[in-house]
Amino acid sequence: MITNTFCHIPGIGTRIEQQLWDVGVCSWEDVDSLAPGRLPIGRERIRRVRHYLDESLARLRDNDPRYFAELLPGDQHWRLFRDFRSGIAYLDIETTGMGTPEDYITTIALYDGRTIRWYVQGRNLEQFQDDIRDYRVIVTYNGKCFDIPFIRNTMRVPMDHVHIDLRYVLASEGYRGGLKGCERQLGICRHELDGVDGFFAVLLWDDFQRNRNPKALETLLAYNILDVVNLEALMVMSYNMKVAQTPFDRTHRILPPSPPRGLFTPDRETIDAIRNRYHRMEL
Asked: pTM above 0.85?
């Protein structure tokens, strides 16, 4: 999609970009195929387009998503997905709470479409700051408001990656209600982890800490990893929704990803026990 994009060029918004597509300038190489008089922009702007496209080609060859992210409007960052997919990590964290000074990260899950990585407080959490450097782009749900500031504040990791936050991409298509709500609306089922949410993840960690219940940690990791695996599915769905609004729906649509095998198995007995215990506390 990047080589079909012109709205990263100063002075070319999505309206003019659509006009370029309408007259047959559908990719960067098409710019020179039409006489200037047939283009919906003047000669000065044509010169600017050619200048930026030369630079864009070089940056694409260098696999540099930041160049495009800094020039594209924020609501167009979804366009980075297909061309820079090999350098993307889907990221999600679990914590002890919502960000008070006493709260801390309990687990982190990373998934790049091939490899799943997980990190646990008190075991290997510090390894995250090295592993995250392997990626140029991160995809989250609500990470701009929660995950990324939390990591920066508690782990002192810069987290200056190019960032696609699916909360805003999905909201622009009418899907709201949090990650789990968007999943339900788009037909993604969580099976054994249905009904487990971020607050329940806090209870799982508490059970692991207080009772040394290994099944609680295994369930927490299964939940955390499912979040990032589902982020890839949601990213593909979001991308396809956006592409469907362009002339490139037939050529650029991406097939749904195949989910990886589960590394951790949720424990139904642990889930039920915590749910019953918390219900009694509420009463």
From this structure: yes
